[in-house]
Amino acid sequence: xxxxxxxxxxxxxxxxxxxxxxxxxxxxxxxxxxxxxxxxxxxxxxxxxxxxxxxxxxxxxxxxxxxxxxxxxxxxxxxxxxxxxxxxxxxxxxxxxxxxxxxxxxxxxxxxxxxxxxxxxxxxxxxxxxxxxxxxxxxxxxxxxxxxxxxxxxxxxxxxx
Length: 161
Fold this sequence. Notes:
Layout: E1 13-19, E2 24-31, E3 35-48, E4 56-62, E5 71-75, E6 79-84, H1 90-106, H2 119-136, H3 140-150
Antiparallel strand pairs: 1-2, 1-6, 2-3, 3-4, 3-5
Helix pairs in contact: 2-3
């Protein structure tokens, strides 16, 4: 597998390209005059870690994932700013590019067409919503029959002391 640098003849630098519409694109750039070619353009997401306090999770994902073209040309009049990508992120970017390029080349992108339904969680959510509706009293006529189906206790029949 070729490294990301091998995909273009003269990579000038790793850059973050900030577009006027607010999007940020990370990639290896080549100045083409009125445009910039970005090889293997990626978005970068930085989020606090849920598992390690004080740490940040860095995820790169493709800018235009439904194409197998490795280079995107961006007109300069759509660009707000360009800055160098911090060296700390380059190995993570390269790793994401290699992984993505392999998937594209072998047509093995791990894509599913719908998420599996967690029926237990769905049942809990429906029950919770029905309890909220019952507590409001607005839907008493409609809910009398529905509560039986979900095993929700009718709070209106409870004696409160």
